[in-house]
Amino acid sequence: MSNYELVCGLETHIELSTKTKIFCSCTTEFGGDPNTHCCPVCIGLPGTLPKLNKKVVEYAVMAGLATNCEISPVSKMDRKNYVYPDLPKAYQISQYDMPLCKNGYVELSNGRKVRILRIHIEEDAGKLVHQRGSTYVDYNRGGVPLIEIVTEPDIRSIDEAREYLERLQLVMRFLGISDCKMQEGSMRCDVNVSVRPQGTEAFGTRTEIKNMNSFTHMAKAMEYEVNRQIDLLQSGEKVVQETRRYNEEDDCTESMRGKEDAHDYRYFREPDLVTIQVSEETVAQLREKLPELPHQRLERYRAEFGIPEADAQQLIKYRRIADYFEAAIDGVQNPKVVANCMIGQIFSRLDGDSAKESFQVNVTPENLNALVKLLDEGKIKMNLLKATLEKMLDTGKAPGELISEADMGGVDADALKSVCEQAIASNPNAVSDYLSGKEKALKAILGSVMKATRGRADAMEAEKLLIQLIQGANAK
Amino acid sequence: MESQIKKLHGLMQSRQISCQELTQNYLDAMERDNIKINAYVNPTAELAMETAKAVDKKIASGEELSPLAGIPMTLKDNISTKGIETTCCSNILKGYYPIYDATVWDILQRQNAVLLGKTNMDEFAMGSSCETSCFGGALNPHDLSRVAGGSSGGVASAVGGNLAVYGLGSDTGGSIRQPASFCGLVGLKPTYGAVSRYGLIAYASSFDQIGPITATVEDAALIYDAISRYDEKDSTCRGNTGKPVSESLNNSIKGMKIGIAKEYFDGIRDDVNGAVQNALKVCESLGAEIVYFDMPALKYSLPVYYILACAEASSNLGRYDGIRYGYRTPHYGDRNEMICKTRSEGFGREVKRRILLGTYVLSAGYYDAYYKKAQNLRGTLVKAFQDAFGKCDAILAPTVPMTAFPLNFTAQDAVETYQTDICTVPVNIAGLPAVSIPCGFDAAGLPIGMQLIGSSFSEAVILNIAHQYESAVGNTVFRSADMGVKL
């Protein structure tokens, strides 16, 4: 790699989470028995006509605004003609020379901008199911709305490609216009890869790797492809412009079709649909409706709440988590406590990305909010908060049900002293260990103090007192 | 001429005839005469009698019914009818039973229309003689050695032969007006967007429009009023937003300006020219003013139409691949072979010719030279018509440069056949309304047609002029065929 530089552009397909399909009123719900989410329109029966779903245009405009695009006041739909059994009309209704959004960008953490050439809307195709030597077609996905986001070749490393895609995913999720699940195909991308000698301007010949459906595969495929192209160039051979696929089993890319087999899509204007017009007013209204986007939230968490950037990153990684956090900090004096509860205790109960994405936890944000407010009001100490949160996570109960009135009062100085004395008396071994220099032994004694007070004691105070008492006794 | 629909409506309302008797008359006539003219490819006798029975019940209970209730009619076989085989007269769609109704059929069913059957047509509406039908062509009821015309030939043959009171056809480049002209009938091609295309099996989407073929202008107006409704299923459909056109038929046409563009008369047969000139004199005698002008853009009509219509057709017909419905070849190895053989065996010559032509003009490398240029010229033609309607209220022109072709005439030279569409295609290119009405006969006694062309959504204007003309010439209108139902 050292003498070569990667040049990469991405074409990302994102399924929009509208309730109904792009040209009919069938549901877009994922799954279902084959061909149950279908009607004459989405299976392209003779004589049927498409009717554009307004929500699709709105969602696509929102995607454009969130990625700094210009919104075209006038655009149109075109037919992309090709024959494949998953495409019942033998053409896909898409946009060709007049996309809905163009000339935007996504900014990466290193400050570089990945320019977006265009965002257009189109319909998804159905799915072929190969079973027992036969092939079946399931059109449930046929007609689900998609946006395709095409970048300029501005990406210079695999890390940048991954970050761009992660940012895009996050933004779309925050907009609430797609769940962007790569594993379910609601986000998938084609990667255009070429290499050139460091410091040169001219682009090398590119290859396109189709249909990446995970970040890991994308990174692996790119790495393989970059090395393959460099090897070719170094041995004096040429890179052939072609479409390739990633082979997971052998971790390599392989040729699908060459340039000479490139499709002639015979694009032309879709005569069954009228021109799409998006007024300035509509754009302004949608801009108004845009939620606070992830990078804006991150900045607020960092600057206003003093949450470390790494923690803030975790909180905004999924829309549900970020929204949960927002609800839980409502009226709280120190949002950082909420952040710590979530990252420290709640997240440890979630296994993996998909658990975080769905974020099903026993504790409602209101209950967490109530718990942290008890701390604000001085009614409980930090350690009781933590213990209570564990119980809440186990039982789903509200903090009030778990902390009795009696629990909430602190422990007064006299009572604390007597509890500490008892703890010292019943832990002679720990005391002698401590005196012989093992400072950790003190924790065991402190533990029995906390246990005796059911967590109400101030741990710092108790520790101080224990040291005093042990050293006092020893001095005698 | 008296409205056939109103006459029959009156007879049923006054209990002089029941709907079942009326329907049975038509079914009997079909049984007897369809074999001669091949107008129907799929009669629906059972459904017709069922509907007739229901209509009689409604009449007996004193329910107020629309004028179309109980009137026996027909639909071209490219209009989707739920549960009734709809083939576009193509082998590739044999055995296709739509699972939904076309909007126009939905509207007419609600008005208790009695469907006698589906009628013959050129395969996928491509043709000018009805002879490209996989069922063999429909014949001209006035001369069985002549074609009924295309592509809605079956509808014209059925109505002209008194085997239906009216029918709905589709007009992409003249397919309603030309057979109406050949069979001595009234054929209305509505403004693009006036009638929903939902359920009309597409030939060329930006040209196709459904319209009626009837015996009289008033019938055409009644049908147009019924079917020109806004339909949310068709984005390009607005419906007629004005008042019912049947209310304007009796207006005086005094002072109206009728335009004559000389290009419409280039290469027209003398007798046809003469008949149209005579009609012009009738209009003048009714007080209309004649305005002469040139429309040089009209000379681009045929290439523009054949390039754009074939381009759209090549895309619209891609879905017939044997996978989901219709014909599938019985012998094949892999999927590609299945699709290729299904299409080779399922489509006829004319359809294949247009698919190939359309695929060619859209291909990379040829797009700019053909498709794009034709699109630009389409704009020029739209503009030429706009200019013309600045000078006149309607344009009068022949419908076809000749009268009905002898059988097999069109099979000899495709390009020569395309040229007979010269007078009809311009309005489809510009999306305008036009009505063809009979205006005389040739020496062999075959009907000659002329058309009145209007600006967008001016159906009321052209039907008014047509009705006034028809009333003036009265019984000279040709509708003689010695067959079918006589009432």
Q: How much beta of chain A, percentage-wise?
A: 15-25%
Number of helices of chain A: 17
Strand order of the largest sheet of chain A: 2-6-7-10-1-11-12-13-14
Structural class of chain A: alpha+beta
Structure description:
- The complex is a heterodimer of chains A (476) and B (487).
- In chain A, 41% of the residues lie in helices and 20% in strands.
- Chain A is of the alpha+beta class and 476 residues long.
- In chain A, the strands form four sheets. In chain A, strands 2-6-7-10-1-11-12-13-14 form a nine-stranded mixed beta sheet.
- In chain A, helix 10 (365-376) packs antiparallel against helix 11 (382-395) and helix 16 (441-452) crosses helix 17.
- Chain B is globular.
- In chain B, the strands form two sheets. Chain B has an eleven-stranded mixed beta sheet with strand order 1-3-2-6-8-7-12-13-11-9-10, sandwiched between helices.
- Chain B has 15 helices and 13 strands.
- In chain B, helix 2 (19-37) packs antiparallel against helix 3, helix 9 crosses helix 11 (349-362) and helix 9 (301-316) crosses helix 12 (368-388).
- The model of chain B has no long low-confidence stretch (mean pLDDT 96).
- In chain B, 61% of the residues are buried.
- Chain B is of the alpha/beta class.
- The chains are: A alpha+beta (476), B alpha/beta (487).
- The A-B interface holds A 40, 43-52, 79, 81, 83, 85, 88-91, 135, 137, 264, 266-268, 271-274 and B 78-80, 86, 88, 93, 96, 98-100, 102, 197-202, 204-206, 232-236, 311-312, 314-315, 318-319, 321, 323-325, 335, 339, 359, 362-364, 367, 371.
